[in-house]
Write a structure and sequence with these properties.
The complex is a heterodimer. Chain A is built from no helices and eleven strands. By secondary structure, chain A is mostly beta strands. In chain A, the strands form two sheets. In chain A, strands 2, 4, 5, 6, 9, 10 and 11 form a seven-stranded mixed sheet that branches. In chain A, strands 1-3-8-7 form a four-stranded antiparallel sheet, with no helix packed on it. The N and C termini of chain A lie far apart (about 35 Å). Chain B is an all-beta fold. Chain B starts with a strand and ends with a strand. Classes of the chains: A mainly beta, B mainly beta.
């Protein structure tokens, strides 16, 4: 499978615990995006990387959230001191940015986080 | 502020019917408009996309119509099938702003056999 992969697919944690999610993009893609989707809503942008550089973070991304893409390949999203409001599907997408179209972003299956 | 408004929230059609989903945007800087299909428990899958210099685009049974002056675009699903039952999202992005996607609220489509 050469698509975007995410692990774990499901995570149940207790409030106050830290969690980390991993995203492996399509191999030649240099851009990687994180989105959050709550039930019945469209995904919302959190942050994105071009290669290893984090270029933008949304205001949605509080100080408890941190993301890395250390070698420009896979990325991790960590949430510290989880809160019940963090319960959501966390989606990763990747794209090949070459300065011209196409701009297609391909999504992974997501990590469903439940904070109890 | 919701920059992309999608309607209706849900839609029921008979097999062979043509569900039509509409989206309106506010930011005239948007320069890329994709549609995604999402099944329960899965990530969104890219269906078709359009840029504002094109008024219509067809890929298989999916057609996007784009009205730049009205700042509206729509998705038509021709000859709909029960397997098309899913939630559909429109989105928009700006190349110069990193192509981060702004999504509509989604439309749940049910195609009855």
């Amino acid at each position: 499978d050469t698509g975007v992969s995410q692990n774990p697919r499901h995570k149940i944690t207790k409030r106050g615990q830290n969690v980390t999610f991993r995203c492996d993009p399509i191999s030649e893609h240099n851009r990687l995006y994180w989105y959050r989707q709550t039930l019945g809503q469209g995904p919302e942008f959190l942050t994105y990387f071009q290669n290893e550089a984090q270029l933008e973070k949304s205001r949605l991304l509080s100080d408890r959230f941190s993301a890395e893409r250390p070698k420009g390949s896979f990325s991790t999203l960590e949430i510290q001191r989880t809160e019940q409001g963090d319960s959501a599907m966390y989606l990763c997408a990747s794209s090949l940015f070459s300065g011209k179209a196409p701009y297609e972003q391909y999504f992974g299956p997501g990590t469903r986080l439940t904070v109890t | 502020q919701q920059q992309v408004k999608q309607s209706p929230q849900s839609l029921i059609v008979q097999k062979g019917g043509i569900p039509i989903i509409n989206c309106a945007y506010e930011n005239t800087a948007f320069d890329y408009f994709p549609w995604y299909q999402q099944f329960p428990g899965k990530g969104p899958a890219l269906l078709i996309a359009i840029r504002p210099d094109v008024s219509e685009k067809k890929e298989g049974r999916f057609t996007i119509s784009f009205n730049k002056s009205a700042k509206q675009f729509s998705l038509h699903i021709m000859d709909s099938q029960p397997g098309d039952s899913a939630t559909y999202f429109c989105a928009a992005s700006i190349k110069a702003a990193g192509n981060k996607l702004t999504f509509g609220g989604g439309t749940r489509v049910l195609v009855k056999p």
